[in-house]
Fold:
Amino acid sequence: MDNELIKEKLAEASHNDEITCAECFAVAEELGIPVDGFAQILTKMDIKIIKCQLGCF
Structure:
């Protein structure tokens, strides 16, 4: 997976370095990345998960 594409999609979906749980699931699905792996990417990029629905992140 292209890191630049991931960064671009996250920049589009996030707001002030925050992203909602639902937006995380949507971006991960769009990019074909498993949610557990996606959480690690968000952590590395210092993007905070907000409004988490199930405590997945």
Remarks:
- The CA atoms of residues 6 and 50 lie 19 Å apart.
- The chain is about 55% helix and 10% strand.
